């Protein structure tokens, strides 16, 4: 199959990777502060962003339940590369905690989808 034929299914993942890369490229002095909610907003953003990225990877992998681990590993690898990238951004540093938050967000999103797909399949069998 031609690479260009595969591009549309990978486009959501590519767009999310670009967005994550762009946010990671912001220097620490240019980062917004959310006052008392700063930690929650930023770490919640990590979990949400990587949850969406994992789902986008799974979409590109044809939503196959057998590919859940592959989608999670891809999200984990991107999280690691993103934290490495941040070590080159002024005032930023890589964080193992962020990788854990990112991969946990990816795992939660994939598990929710897995449960939903299984419930949907049970409903089809029951009808």
Characteristics:
75% helix; 127 residues; mainly alpha
Tell me what the structure shows.
The protein has 127 residues and is mostly helical. The protein has one domain. Helix content is 75%, strand content 0%. The chain has 4 helices and no strands. Helix 3 packs antiparallel against helix 4. The model has no long low-confidence stretch (mean pLDDT 92).
Structural class computed from helices and strand pairing: mainly alpha
Strand content: under 5%
**What proportion of the residues is helical, as a percent range?**
over 70%
Q: Could you state the oligomeric state of the chains shown?
A: single chain
State mean pLDDT (0 to 100 scale). Answer: 92
Reported for the largest beta sheet, the result is: none
Query: What is the H/E order?
Result: HHHH
Which term fits the overall shape? Answer: globular
Q: Could you give the count of β-strands? A: 0
Radius of gyration: 17 Å
Low-pLDDT runs: none
Count structural domains.
1
Distance between the termini: 37 Å
Number of helices: 4
């Amino acid at each position: 199959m031609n690479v260009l034929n595969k591009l549309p299914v990978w486009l959501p993942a590519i767009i999310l990777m670009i967005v994550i890369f762009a946010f990671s490229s912001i220097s620490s002095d240019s980062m917004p502060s959310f006052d008392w909610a700063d930690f929650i907003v930023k770490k919640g953003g990590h979990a949400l962003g990587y949850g969406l990225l994992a789902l986008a990877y799974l979409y590109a992998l044809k939503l196959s339940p057998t590919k859940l681990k592959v989608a999670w590993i891809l999200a984990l690898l991107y999280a690691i590369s993103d934290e490495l990238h941040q070590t080159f951004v002024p005032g930023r540093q890589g964080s193992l905690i962020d990788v854990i938050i990112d991969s946990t967000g990816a795992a939660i999103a994939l598990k929710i989808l897995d449960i939903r797909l299984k419930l949907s399949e049970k409903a089809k069998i029951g009808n």
